[in-house]
Amino acid sequence: MHQVLKEELPFNEYVINERWKSRLIDINAYKALHTKSLEQLEEFWASIARELEWFKPWDKVLDASNPPFYKWFVGGKLNLSYLALDRHVKTWRKNKLAIEWEGEPVDENGNPTEQRKLTYFDLYREVNRAAYMLKHNFGIRKGDRITLYMPMIPELPIVMLAAWRIGAVTSVVFSGFSAEALAERINDSQSRIVVTVDGFWRRGKVIRLKEIVDQALEKVGTVENVIVYRRLGLKDVPMTEGRDYWWHKVMEGIKANAYVEPEPLESEHPSFILYTSGTTGKPKGIVHDTGGWAVHVYATMKWVFDLREEDIYWCTADIGWVTGHSYVVLGPLMIGATQVIYEGAPDYPQPDRWWAIIERYGVTILYTSPTAIRMFMRYGEEWPRRHDLSTLRIIHSVGEPINPEAWRWAYKVLGNENVAMASTWWMTETGGIVISHTPGLYLIPMKPGTNGLPLPGFDVDVFDDNGKPAPPGVRGYLVIKRPWPGMLHGIWGDPDRYIKTYWSKFPGVFYAGDYAIKDQDGYIWVLGRADEVIKVAGHRLGTYELESALVSHPTVAEAAVVGVPDPIKGEVPIAFVVLKQGVMPSDELRKELRDHVRKTIGPVAEPAHIFFVTKLPKTRSGKIMRRLLKAVATGAPLGDTTTLEDETSVEEAKKAYEELRREIARG
Ligand code: WTA
């Protein structure tokens, strides 16, 4: 069931090296510390929260009087922008580099043509000015939602921190999403403004982002203003009089030393909404608070990333996903780190771009995705060998299972067998890392592909179907048995769905939706999703969204989408499509449907294959049996088919699939 490859999981392969030997701890000693943290859970988290600066201390660490609506650090007041900036500019860190930014374009020698360096003081100044702009020029108040549709440039963290400074709630939409996906998210969050750019670089091409915003706004009623940051200086950017404003024009009128008082926000005040996919229905807006999230992210920055003042940290995730929220924007800045932010594609102009970046800035900590590692594996060792990667001391991955082979490759080729490596498990809903190795604390031996043990303060288990702990080596469902600080605070506007999705499969326990195995040492190995979510190159997509996109095409009657293993992307979606009466299947139509999905959701969602069939396998009550389609596509046994209405539907899917395989074999 391991998503990527059917490699054996190396339960007995223990890895440790010279550099990290001094942090090594016996597995049982680690477990004892973990048990202790759970025994005094509230005091444990309070002791970490005290390391942050609060405007007003909390009255109660955890309010569990109305589960699952838990509240953390109740009565406490704080501000994320203050924690990330003001606190540092009062110290020597004022002049420390916060961000080393690099744009995508390069000159004829392959050197970047655009670089920006921002110190904590620079960032503090810019965030204050942006906060001033939001508050005074656009009238944004505490609790207002603002949608950010921007690429990886410093202005994205700047405007997020500015929003949090005044208590506005951010909703960042990944810049690879389509106009329709953007419109849906703006509508659901009822945002008053959208911040975007004229355009940005992606793999040598200009993406004209503002035009996508304009398309989205045709379907949206709430947006009063659009602020456009001039990233490229494109000509002919359509601007709607009275609604759209250039960032730089507005900023001209704001003094360099503008200061906006950071709003003392209740710990429970929402800081952001982030839309993510689930089993059914449209994407849900996951809501996170201020205080609990800050404490969780702060703790994991220390334990998992072991950040020291001299580190150069690089998290390659896009800020449009949760990893970027927690570990590009809040985490590194709160801890006072120097970090790299890169705008463009990993293999542009050639496959050593990332290695050149690591060498250029002397990156010491890399946080990346298994998909990226597998892609670079395929390009070959010679690309990383051209560069000095000896500065690296930690390489972690996130977003999907890492197969042992990819782990070993990264450990050896990138890490020179002298790094700490973890596959950090968490999700949008958890707000921060939950299972990982902890080089910043004590390090238990690594194993290629495992997630490691739960972090201190997290009560994690693997349950069987009856809600009992699954025995070692047996697949079950990943759960979190007690509340944790960074936990989601519901789904925007839908408390019932919150209870139903996460707290009902096993009453009182958080259900993550992942399959996992605990090995004989208690190490957890997350295997992949147990629901209808697909992880394409780490991006989280719902089969339902893809199916809706397909049936919105005039030729499509019905569609079923499943994820199948892919050697690089982990999983890719494939679609079985029933056409409307009288529509003839053709290669052109196939291409048209793939384009249609790209346009409706975004390029990440494009199905790898589309199969035309005359019917879908369904139960007698009419539910599509995606499980069978998946079995057909992976060659796995069909399992129980007693509820299947019409067996010929599976035969047809099989035939369609085999035909494709023959076609591929023929080239
Ligand atoms: C998967 C990303 C295995 C998992 C931070 C989870 C992982 C989903 C890992 C959440 C990992 C994340 N090993 N699987 N280290 N990290 N996942 O919300 O299926 O985009 O449920 O958050 O990614 O995806 P999301």
Automatic annotation (TrEMBL):
This is Acetyl-coenzyme A synthetase. It is an enzyme of class 6 (ligase). Its cofactor is Mg(2+). ATP binds at G399, E400, P401, S423, T424, W425, W426, M427, T428, D514, R529, R540. Residues 545-623 form the AMP-binding enzyme C-terminal domain. The lineage of its organism: Archaea, Thermoproteota, Thermoprotei, Thermoproteales, Thermoproteaceae. It catalyses: 3-hydroxypropanoate + ATP + CoA = 3-hydroxypropanoyl-CoA + AMP + diphosphate; acetate + ATP + CoA = acetyl-CoA + AMP + diphosphate. It comes from Pyrobaculum islandicum (strain DSM 4184 / JCM 9189 / GEO3). The keyword Acetylation applies. The gene is acsA. Keywords: Acetylation, ATP-binding, Ligase, Magnesium, Metal-binding, Nucleotide-binding.
